[in-house]
Design a protein that fits this description.
The chain is of the alpha+beta class. The protein has one domain. It contains 6 helices and 6 strands; from the N terminus they run H-E-E-H-H-E-E-E-H-H-H-E. Strand 4 and strand 5 form a beta hairpin.
Length: 149
């Protein structure tokens, strides 16, 4: 087999492998921001300032409910700040320490970097609602910084 035949065969194998990988033909779903009160898609015309960012709601009634009980909806509000790119992770939300490559867990569709296996195990063992509160509630100020709007 000549060099050009080998090169052609290698290229064919490469292309077949590339286009037959599971999920290779599926675009990644973009995480959409949801109203922290209703869980519905946001309406950008209904918003308020929050943590130096802009928080969006599905309707005016949801915004009013949020104002009346911020603590109840804080974790979901903070999650929205991350999803909309207004908040960025700066440290492990559980310990406040620098993150380590390879120590991450998906929480509510967001990749959360952690500092150690202890934090990773703790977060992995928690139920989804507990994870949300651990990262975007109690841990938000330790691990995230909001860009001022």
């Amino acid at each position: 087999m000549g060099n050009s035949s080998r090169a052609s065969l290698l290229m064919l194998v490469f292309l077949l492998f590339t286009f037959t990988l599971p999920g290779a033909d599926k675009p990644k779903a973009e995480l959409r921001p949801l109203c922290p009160v209703t869980g519905k898609p946001i309406d950008k015309s209904v918003s308020m300032d929050y943590h130096s960012g802009k928080l969006y709601f599905s309707n005016a009634e949801a915004a009013k409910k949020f104002q009346n009980n911020v603590e109840k909806y804080a974790a979901r509000a903070n999650l929205q700040l991350v999803v909309t790119g207004q908040a960025h992770q700066t440290a492990c939300p559980l310990m406040g320490k620098p993150v380590v490559s390879g120590k991450s867990v998906m929480v509510s569709g967001v990749k959360v970097e952690l500092c150690c296996n202890i934090c990773k195990t703790k977060l992995t063992k928690a139920k989804p609602e507990e994870q949300l509160e651990m990262i975007f509630g109690a841990g938000f100020d330790k691990g995230y910084t909001v860009k001022k709007t």
